[in-house]
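Good morning C.,

I know you're traveling, so I'll keep this short. The sequence:
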Amino acid sequence: MTSAIICILVVLSVLLFVHLCVIVILLFNQRRSSAQVNVSHEGYLVVYTSQSGHVEHYAKQFAHQLQQSGQLIAVLDLQYLSISELTAAKKILWCVSTYGEGDAPDTARAISKKMLVQSLDLSAQQYAVLAFGDRRYPQFCAFGQRLDQWLKTQQAQPLFEMICVNALNPRDLEQWQAQIEQLIEIKLDVKTKHQTWQPFQLQQRKCLNTGSSGLPIFQLQLHALETMHWQSGDIFEVQCGNAEIEIQSFLKAHAIADDILHQPELKQQLRHNNLRHIPLRLVDEAVEAWVQRFDRLPSRDYSIASIPEQGYVELVIRQQQTEHGLGLGSGWLTAALAMGENISAKIRSNPSFHLVQQQQALILIGNGTGIAGLMSHLHQREHWQQQRNWLIFGERQQQYDHLYAEQLQHWQQRGFLTDIDYAFSRDQQQKIYVQDRLLQKADQLRQWIADGAAIYVCGSLSGMAQQVEQVLIQILGETQLEQLREQHRYQRDVY
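The tokens, ready to paste straight into the viewer:
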């Protein structure tokens, strides 16, 4: 190859690189300024904020329908909303979720804090708030409520009262849709699901903490019946089901013949319908029509502990006890579901907990079943051959609750896990938790952060995640922690 050809190839490579850089910059600017041009138009601006992807998906589906009807200005992630865009907009539809301790999702915490302390004149603006939450948590739709109250204080005019959505309840979403349709006088067809349910087969289940004073923790392996792809940090959404004994009890209680189960569609409905709260059966109403009116059992979300290269979906689930017995999801998966039986589930992208950079050192912090999300990241790091990883993990007793002990020890011996710090709270008179270990390693933490490391937290919100954040603020300062959050170097999957 002559020197002239080499020079031409080098020049072309440089030009291609410059071209790609320009494209990336333009795409970013387009994303950031998508609502800047026409926010003063009479159409609707849809603003959303989402932690695990559900709300983002719904907001974009909803915005698409508005666009088709000619009613949409733009759809914008709250983290990219400027004050000038906010004040210029004539009509805003807010789709917001609540996360953590009643806060905005992590990506929007900084902008929401700045926004909600400002005093603005929004008297020319109309708005509506669709707040997403889960009534199992004490701060149900708290961020949506704060946003709604702040908008009213700024003299913005509500199009209708705020609507709260409990665990993606279709009836709550239908209520919102009906209100919007009444305003625009157009029928909308908004889909709320990412994808259809897929069958997964239970192939392995074992208790990881036999003898523990805590509730049993189970490891499950499920095989997809078709090829599935996901990233470490993604969510496994399971459609809860009824055990066979619960279905038989329902049939007996309502004097329904067993041969009704020979209808595959009806049997599937009974498997996934709520048999604890059933509507009154009308006189002479057929069983099939009656069952159609049942509410569907809710779904449950679980962190995935494996990566696609392992060939299966691995979950770590702690049994939950309620006044009615085992928890709806944990009881179904750890006890009622038979080996070899199929479940309906889907894998949902969770971008707020994805690994951002391959070369970045990781500080992984968690407790209990939070080990699942951390294990998926460790498996991914091993696949990438990235070895600077530090795990800080807490449970009750080392003798019984040392989850994934052999695997973690193997990684440590190979040098893949640079550091491991455990906090087994019940192994000494004075209880020691994850946040205590973190505080003991404050100097090391500062050095890792100075070297560019990212922090990933997975596990219980109450207690662990709250206390870890307070210790991080104590060690790094609130300003630096917010900077890490904005740089996607402080990511959380807590529940």
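Safe travels,
E.
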